[in-house]
Amino acid sequence: MARTQKPPLTWKLLGTGSATLSGIAVRKLTDAVWYAARGSTPPKNPAAPGVSWPEALAWAAFSGLTVAGSRLLAARGAAAAYQSLTGKLPPGINEAS
Questions:
Q1: Predicted pLDDT of residue 4
Q2: Residue 56 neighbours by CB under 8 Å, 6+ apart
Q3: Angle ∠(42,19,88) on CA atoms, nearest 5
Q4: Which of 45, 47, 60, 66 falls 20 to 30 Å from 9 in CA-CA distance?
């Protein structure tokens, strides 16, 4: 039976820290951009009956794109920082996926 190796603490801290910070920043940024573009706050619950379909779909598309993009940037940034610190790629990430 093969034992799986735990990821190093450095990678856990970089990955978790970058994901948390980017999540907070992106949420604030998406709310501010939505307000600047639409003149109203984004819907707190797009599924609520009082939210129109176009507004709910627009918020879902906009917030989904920004959250997915920020997760990608955070993951790549954390991997680059880990590689810079250790000289090797983080566990589970290979050179050409």
A1: 59
A2: 43, 46, 47
A3: 150
A4: 66
Residue pair 85/10 in contact by the 8 Å Cβ criterion = yes
For residue 93, give both structure tokens.
């990430």
Contact 75, 34 (CB under 8 A): no
Closest CA to 43 of 59, 20, 29, 65: 59
| Mean pLDDT, 10 residues at a time, the chain of 97 residues | 64 82 89 94 91 94 92 88 87 72
Long-range contacts of 25-30 (CB under 8 A, 24+ apart): 25/70, 26/66, 26/67, 26/70, 29/66, 30/62, 30/63, 30/66, 30/67
Query: Judging by beta carbons within 10 Å of its beta carbon (0-12, 13-18, 19+), is residue 53 exposed, middle or buried?
Result: exposed
Could you tell me how many residues make up the chain?
97
What tokens appear for 15 in the block? 């990955």
